[in-house]
Write a structure and sequence with these properties.
With about 350 residues, this protein is α/β, with parallel strands linked by helices. It is about 30% helix and about 20% strand. It has 13 helices and 16 strands. The strands form four sheets. It has an eight-stranded parallel beta barrel, surrounded by five helices. α6 packs parallel to α7. The longest helix is centred in the middle third of the chain and has 14 residues. About 5% of the residues have low confidence. This is Anthranilate synthase / indole-3-glycerol phosphate synthase.
Length: about 350
């Protein structure tokens, strides 16, 4: 049995960590004066080392309150009074957890993901320019980022991130509708960690240590592998001249978002090729009966992304090399890419 150690300030957090607590609850209510400060957990979350399961206690009365901790190392929230007051406890729990029927449909407009970010300057510029997702690569790659640099990038982006404000829907949503809506909850842009054929333990450790919003699985991982990851997964499917994985890419309740990228040569990792595939394949999947949220990648540039969006109508577009000059993220190209996306 693992004890839950409750803390309310830095001194108590330091003691809890020093004695080896593995489950720590941060009480947002000061028990000396009974005032509630929802930022107590957010402040102390920065002091928590890898491997600690962090819980926010007190003051969580709505999905908006729970969403405050999206993008941090908080893994759970404890709710008492609000649950007792709820007229429909089941729906209330569903709304808090972000599962089906939890949030309204997203706003219109194709989301934008800038991937392969390696510097604070490029990440902050992409965020300020309107990117919805920022991708950091942790798999073997020329764009791989070490943990400390990734932490620096994420901390800088979080300082300028903007919160969303959402209300529970008046009607139930499908699985993929709820995953679209989840993007609108918490802070934007969302931080995506990109992995390829790494262990669930390694991925989980990095994701929880850095407070990633999404994990992108870019290798041969199965859809069932997503169940082992405690945060939403973007599953990548590699597209060649033909594509026979429509059913897998549309399977609900496993992955959150479907990313289509150009298939690499045999026995080589996919992605980062700067080459496009047949967009008709993406359009067919995006408009299939289950309508999975499709992220279109592969060979996109400021010059062709508007045409791609018009043809495919994807949930999001993903670019890396298309906004680089000599292998380095180019601010002017990032700006041009985002402007082209928003022109459609």
């Amino acid at each position: 049995m693992e004890p839950l150690v409750e803390v309310n300030n830095t001194a108590e957090m330091t003691t809890a960590i020093e004695v080896g607590a593995k489950v720590i609850g941060v009480n947002n209510r000061n028990l000396h004066n009974f005032k509630v400060d929802m930022e107590t957990t957010s402040r102390l979350a920065q002091e928590v080392p890898s491997g600690v399961f962090l819980i926010a206690l007190s003051g969580i009365n709505s999905p908006e309150d729970a969403a405050i901790y999206s993008g941090t190392s908080v893994r759970a929230v404890l709710v008492g009074e609000a649950l007792m007051r709820a007229s429909d406890p089941s729906s209330f729990i569903t709304a808090l957890s972000g599962r089906t029927a939890s949030y309204p449909k997203t706003a219109t407009g194709t989301k934008i993901k800038i991937c392969g970010l390696q510097t604070v300057e490029a990440a902050v510029y992409a965020a300020q320019s309107g990117a919805d997702f920022l991708g950091i690569i942790f798999a073997p790659s020329k764009r791989k980022v070490e943990l400390e640099k990734a932490r620096e990038i994420i901390q800088a982006v979080r300082l300028i991130s903007k919160p969303h404000s959402q209300r529970p829907p008046q009607h139930p949503l499908t699985w993929f509708d709820s995953q679209r809506a989840l993007v609108e909850v918490g802070l934007t842009p969302k931080i995506v960690g990109v992995f390829r054929d790494q262990s669930a333990e390694e991925i989980t450790s990095i994701a929880t240590t850095l407070g990633l919003d999404y994990v992108q699985l870019h290798g041969s991982e199965s859809l069932e592998f997503c169940r082992q990851i405690p945060i939403p997964c973007i599953k990548v499917f590699h597209v060649g001249k033909e594509f026979n994985q429509h059913a897998q890419a549309s399977t609900p309740n496993l992955h959150s978002l479907t990313l289509l990228d150009t298939q690499a040569a045999p026995n080589t990792p996919g992605g980062g090729l700067g080459k496009a595939f047949d967009w008709d394949i993406a359009a067919q999947l995006a408009n299939s009966s289950l309508k999975p949220p499709v992220i279109l990648a592969g060979g996109l540039t400021p010059d062709n992304v508007a045409d791609a969006i018009s043809k495919v109508h994807p949930f999001a577009v993903d670019v890396s090399s298309g906004v680089e000059t000599d292998g380095v993220k180019d601010h002017s190209l990032i700006q041009a890419f985002i402007k082209a996306c928003k022109s459609v």
